[in-house]
Specification:
Layout: H1 11-25, H2 35-39, H3 46-56, H4 61-74, H5 78-82, H6 86-93, H7 100-116, H8 124-128, H9 135-146, H10 155-164, H11 175-185, H12 191-204, H13 223-227, E1 244-254, E2 259-263, E3 274-275, E4 297-298, E5 303-306, E6 311-321, E7 331-333, H14 345-360
Parallel strand pairs: 1-6
Antiparallel strand pairs: 2-3, 2-7, 4-6, 5-6
Helix pairs in contact: 1-12, 3-4, 3-9, 9-12, 10-11, 10-12
This protein binds a DNA duplex through helix 3, helix 4, helix 7, helix 9 and helix 10.
DNA sequence: CAGACGTGGTC
DNA sequence: TGACCAAGTCT
């Protein structure tokens, strides 16, 4: 049979082909136990598997690596994390995005310590009850950490399944079908390696833009490859356009170098993170009053930032505040305590502009 | 169930 | 430059 033709291959053989490929091409990750080490009985640490999986939700491996290293260095066990201060965890997560993940991370660590003796549940149902652990993450922990044959379905698996079976129904409506197809391939042997193999395949071979079909271990049974439809799969329902909102960031600096910051409420955008006072952002325009009376200067440049569902143009206003200033909003953070890296990215952008403003007007 | 929820990289 | 994309979850 020529390589360009479709070949009937059973589910067991597909899984087996994928595992053979994975044994050679598995990417090395700080949270992963390589296939060869598993043969000597080494098991992944459920804490590290959980932490990495939460960080990897909608986030690239490249972005996660440094955060994973900092978290596991500072909090080596789930008990260490459970005992951490909220603000320390939020600050360490700053820049990674989707901050509900960090809030749920801490909640989850405390539940595992308080209700499970510091040991992660080893069933899908038990894992699903944990804060911030949904169908994907529960199945990933169950299969990767405990080698249970649960069905792991993430964006990679959806893409691989849609192409393998040439399924043109659009996401997210087709998710149940894709899950069904994924379930049909999940093997009883080495389900954890299999799950990681599909995700590695999706990340390195069966990529969204330039799939390397020629070297894909599943090229023989892949219907989309033969039909020439791989590039258009999986289909997705079109997204709505993003509106643009306007806002103000008031960056106030006291004579001793302390900055006036506020802790944002747990609910909503950037919940639980530090930020500059400035009120809500809206399409109508920004008119929020300053947190304290002072000589606020408007900077010439604005911070631009795009969130998941809107663009933001942020005016930056700066002021030198007297040592005895007593603002209604927020709290001063001493220069020894303040780490710009504790700020979410949009707030750090405003800070970078403000710093230039202060430098120009000593 | 559709919308909220971040960010950095890529083309 | 801007739209799309990446190991989703919660409401």
């Amino acid at each position: 049979m020529r390589d360009g033709n479709l070949k009937q291959v059973g589910p067991a053989e597909i899984a087996s082909d994928l595992l053979v490929w994975y044994d050679v091409h598995a990417r090395a990750m700080p949270w992963r136990v390589p296939p060869a080490d598993k043969l000597s009985g080494v098991r992944p640490d459920p804490y590290r598997v959980w932490l990495s999986e939460v960080m990897l939700q909608q986030t690239t491996v490249a972005a996660v690596k440094d955060y994973f290293h900092r978290f596991t260095t500072r909090w080596p066990t789930v008990a260490d994390l459970a005992a951490a201060e909220d603000g320390d965890v939020m600050g360490e997560w700053a820049g990674l995005g989707y901050y509900a993940r960090a809030r749920n991370l801490l909640k989850c660590a405390r539940v595992v310590v308080a209700d499970h003796g510091g040991v992660f549940p080893d069933t899908l149902a038990g894992l699903l009850k944990l804060p911030g652990v949904g169908p994907y993450t529960a199945a990933a922990i169950a299969s990767i950490a405990y080698d249970l044959p649960e069905v792991v379905v993430d964006g990679n698996v959806e893409r691989v399944m849609a192409r393998l079976h040439n399924l043109h129904d659009p996401l997210p409506g087709s998710k149940p079908q894709l899950t069904e197809l994924a379930a049909g391939l999940t093997p009883a042997q080495r389900p954890g390696d299999y799950a990681q193999a599909v995700m590695d395949l999706g990340a390195t071979i069966c990529t969204p833009r330039n799939p390397a079909c020629g070297i894909c271990p599943l090229r023989s049974p892949c219907v989309a490859r033969v039909q020439g439809t791989a590039l258009e799969l999986p289909k997705k329902t079109p997204k709505k356009p993003k509106p643009t909102r306007l806002g103000i960031a008031y960056v106030g600096r006291r004579a001793d170098g302390a900055y006036l910051l506020e802790r944002r409420p747990d609910k909503g955008l950037l919940g639980g993170m530090l930020g500059w006072p400035g009120g809500p952002w809206s399409e109508g325009g920004a008119a929020e009053a300053p947190p304290i009376a002072a000589d606020w200067r408007l900077l010439g440049a604005e911070a631009r930032h795009t969130f998941t569902h809107f663009h933001l143009i942020l005016q930056v206003r700066i002021a030198d505040l007297p040592q005895g200033a007593n603002p209604e909003v927020g709290q001063f953070i001493e220069p020894e305590t303040f780490r710009p890296s504790d700020l979410p990215t949009v707030m750090r952008k405003a800070f970078d502009l403000a710093r230039g403003g202060f430098d120009n007007t000593p």
